[in-house]
Amino acid sequence: MIYPLVSELAGDGIPVTVACRVLKLARQPYYRWLENPVSDAEWVQAHRINALHDAHVEDPTFGYRFLGHEAKKAGWSMSRRTAWSLCSQSGILSAAQRRRRGKGTKAGPPVFDDHVQRMFTADVPNRVWFTDITEHRTAEGKLYCCAIKDACGHRVVGYSISDRMPASLAVDALNNAVARRKAEGHDVAGCILHADRGSQFRSRKMGHTLNRHGMVGSMGRVGAAGDNAAMESFWSLLQTNVLNQRRWSTRQELRLAIVVWIERKYHRQRPQDSLGGLTPIEYEDKITTDAAAAA
């Protein structure tokens, strides 16, 4: 806004008429502004930005939709478009934005070496796990799922589902997988967890969690989807059998459908050619039985 400059020039002795003529401004709007320098709209906008900023500080992973929701809780309601516009103007960006493909920001540097080298099979369970994150829209917004798949029997040993995609999404999936395996009497120490270079898998939280469980991190190359083909094939099945089957009204509805499909259909009712026509649960049972017989 240029009206403050007119006031400064007037304070220096330059007549308002002259300043307005030079700056090509009408005088009446200037005098109206002088009576009320901060308009009601500007006052409301400033408070909305403050509310969005406070919510962003509370959780930097929130996008503009969630920030707008939090601002509403604080008493500053606004449309999603307004929230997006104010966040863009103020430089308020989510720390967990979706990874771009193709042009855009480059993926971060790997924090682990590639210990898999596209070897997507293992002779025994808990030697190599693969992990990745997918997303799908519902009428309420996006739902994110992080899953961990065992290279031996293709079983999904752990997963985490949330309406946001912070590092804790991947950490929760890993903790879930470790807890499940330990409850079954398995030792996961030395197991390799292979992922892409997403920020969730490069985070300090993930590194600390891997160290705590005695596991080894592994990462593929940038832009090489084939380096994590084991998870890409699983997501393709989930997309075909669940996500694209219908329009999902709520996140809870989609969450339940994903869990039911993994635990019932994928694990127990869907035989796989690569497992000799067995389901993941049947194959793991066979591996365990054979190992016990050999011992």
Explained architecture:
- With 295 residues, the chain is α/β, with parallel strands linked by helices.
- The protein has two domains: 3-90, no CATH class; 128-294, Ribonuclease H-like superfamily/Ribonuclease H (Nucleotidyltransferase, domain 5, 2-Layer Sandwich), CATH 3.30.420.10.
- 48% of the residues lie in helices and 12% in strands.
- It is built from twelve helices and five strands.
- The protein has helices spanning 3-11, 16-23, 27-35, 40-58, 64-73, 80-90, 167-183, 199-202, 204-212, 229-241, 251-269, 280-294; strands spanning 128-138, 141-150, 156-162, 192-195, 216-219.
- Strands 3-2-1-4-5 form a five-stranded mixed sheet, sandwiched between helices.
- Strand 1 (128-138) and strand 2 (141-150) form a beta hairpin.
- Helix 7 runs parallel beside helix 9.
- The model is unreliable at 98-104 (pLDDT under 50).
